[in-house]
Every structure is written in C-alpha cells, then in structure tokens.
Amino acid sequence: MTAANAGMHSGRSDIVTREVSLQRLLTAYILAGLLFMLLPGTFLGVWNLLSISSTHTVASLSPAWLQAHGHAQIFGWIGTFILGIGFYSLSKMGNLPPFAVSRGWASFAIWTGGVLLRWTVNITAWQWRVALPASAVLELAAFLIFFRTVSRHRPQPATGNTTRSRQPWMLVVVGSTVGFLASLIANLGVAAYVVVIGKGPAVPVALDQRLLMLPTWGFLVPAVWGFNARWLPRFLGLKTPDGRRLYAALFVAWASVGAMLSGAAILSTALLPVAALLAILALHVFEPSVQPAKVNGVHSTFPLFVRGAYAWLMIAAALSVAAALADREGGIWGASRHALTVGFLSTMVFAIGQRILPAFCGARVLFSKNLMFASLALLNLGCALRVGSEIPAYEGYFRQAWSVLPISAVVELTAVTLFAINLVLTFLRPPAHLMHGLNTP
Ligand code: HEM
To answer: 221 CB under 6 A from ligand 1?
Structure first.
C-alpha cells in the first residue's frame, strides 16, 4: 500500500468511526427521550387525568404533579430528541470538531440528570429548596454545552458555490434554539423565585400557565417549522418554502409569547392563528405537491398525518383565543394545550421521527409501517377524544363527557407505547445493507 493510499484509508476509517460514534450518541438521546415520554411523561399524565376524571375537577390534583408531567414531556421527551438530532445533524453538515461527540455525551449525562432530578423533586418534594434550582442549573449547563459546540458549526458551501448561504430553515432553527435557551433561563429564574416565596416545588399556577408559552410557541413550534422547511419539500414534494412568510410566522409567534409574558392574554392568543396561518402558507402545507411524496420505508399515510398536524395547530390556536375569552375551569386552556402538544407536536414527532430516525440511528429500516400507522392513528383518535371532551367536562357543559376522558388517556398511552416499541425494535435490527431479503411487516 502506498503512503497516499494508507492516508486515504485511515481518513475513511476515521469518518466511519466518527459516524458510528455519532449514531450511538443519537441513539442514546432517542432512547432516553422515549423513556421520559413513556413513564415520567405519559404514564403520569394518564394517572393525573384518571384522578381528575374521578373527582371531576382539576383543582383536586397537586400542581407539582401536573408540572412534572408537562416538564417531562416538553424537556424530557421532545427536548432530548432535539438535542440529540442537533448534535448529530450539525456534526454531519458542518464539520464540527472531533470533540463534539464527547461534548455530546457530557451534555447527555447532565441534561438527563437535570430533567430526572426535576421530575423527582416535583413528585416527592425531596430537598426541593436545593434540588429544584439544581435541576434547572443542570438543564441550562447541558444546553450551554450543546449551544457552544454547535455554534461553531458553519454550513459547508454547496459544491461549486463558495458563498455560505444561510437558508430560511436554518435561521428559524437557530431562532428556535434561542427560544430553547430563553425557556431554560426562565425556568432557572422561576425555580429561584419558588425557593424564595414557595411552600413546595410547584410554580404558582398563574405564572406557570403564562410561562408555558415560552417552551411551546417560543421554542418547540418554531423548531418544527424550521425542520419542516428543510424536510417537507423532500418528503412531501412540497414547493420550496417562502422564507419571508416563515420569518413572519416566527416573529408573530414570538410577539405572542412576549404579549403573554407581559400579561396581555387576549392580544397574545389573537396573534397565534396569524402565526399558524403564516407558517402554513410559508410551507405550502395544504397546496398540491409539485413532486411525488417520498414514502419509501414509511406508511403511505405519512403525508396525510403531517398535513393533519397543521390542522391541529390551527385548532390549538383557535382554542387559545376561546380560552383567553371564556375559560372558567381550565378546560379550554387544557384542550388548546393538548391540541398543540399532542395533536401538532407529538403527531409531527411520530411522523417525522419514524421517517428519519431509523436512517440516522445506524442506517436502519423502520421495523413496521403498520405499527407506525397504528401509533399515529391512535394518537390522533386519542387527541380528538381528549380535545372534544375536555371542554364540556371541565367547564360543566355536559357531565357525561367526563367518562370519555379516561378512554382518551388509554388510547394515547397505547399510541405512545406503539411508537416507542416500533423505534426500539428498529434500533435492534441490523443496518439496512445487512438485511437483504428481510421485509418490513
Ligand atoms: C396520554 C397523553 C397525555 C395525557 C393523558 C395528559 C394529561 C394531562 C393532564 C391531565 C394535564 C393537566 C391539565 C389538564 O387537565 O389539561 C396535562 C397538562 C400538561 N400536559 Fe399533558 N397529557 C398527555 C400528553 C402530553 C404530551 C404528549 C405533552 C407534550 C408533548 C403534554 C404536555 C402537557 C403540558 C405542558 C401540560 C401543562 C403542565 C403544567 O400545568 O405546567 N401532555 N396533561
């Protein structure tokens, strides 16, 4: 072997080793996210809903438990997915330094430790005056490691093009990362405030409800818009996104968050349908595809569920307006929140996650297209039952609706379990190139 050949060979094996270590890192983030989703997140959510349904009032339940569920879902599940995908895709796209992988593991350990501590404190009140702010510090520290590592990322210029063009999707994803940072800083500030004024680990309910706008419309929704702007033209064959409308959607969503934080709830919620509509127009979600959708490896209904998620986004925005005007018992706020978190965010994570994660986590093929369909169909059914019955039950318009809520909880629990099983079985499969002759069920 010549020296030049040996050099090329070792360069290629370095790339392969790095790719494998990045895939392992991402798989760890996804598995941890799934665990948070299943037990601290959904199982506790179901438990909470069953308790509320048996007493017919949300006031019967400890706010600390409600907040433990919300935090586990938003930060433990979706936040962990986003950090893992961020490390993986930015390392691949922009030649992050080799230490990105070890930083990724450090961030993983600190992040999951912080989120788990927060959940434990909320559930048990164990040493809460110390542990609550400590969990917020850990979460912020883990995020800062991520932020510092990926902020070194520079997009590689396309072949033959020496300019480094920032595309709209990138700026919106960067914007959502700023929303993530703002959410964690606010979380730390509130934890410190609770230590001073609180009698337990729960954030005062009114403050908590306002602050929820930050991680939802300030971070997660823009993150989905940004990643959708990148992937939907390929996956659904949609037209190239309209950058200006996408930026406008981001700014209107942030303006809404700002208005909510300053106490202007009606103005804030009135902006949400505008933001959602701008994003839908920017991404051409409901316009005919200009190319065939790429559904190989996933269920053929994949485009339908992605579009359906945007219908949930509009429903969530409209219900928020109704909640600001007419909510008395938390039913309209609850319905709008779950139209957003389950209908929009979770449907999107189920659909896009089962499309991209098998390939990202070791060049695999999804275990089962049918399980994918079942998870998405049940999630949407559970969400429709929940959103449809929460308002009449909580607000006292139709008491029989209380009996539908436990059913919705069990249907949603089944959906998330199927999603987790499908991904775990996918990760247990050999990579696609070693699977010759095997079919997906
Ligand atoms: C089986 C599925 C789920 C069930 C049964 C459930 C149940 C609940 C219940 C009972 C509440 C209390 C407020 C209310 O009555 O509306 C709540 C709040 C909340 N849920 Fe869920 N949920 C589920 C899924 C999710 C998912 C997937 C997310 C996010 C991705 C989420 C995020 C939240 C948030 C942020 C709150 C507010 C927490 C707070 O007050 O700080 N939930 N959920």
So the answer is: no
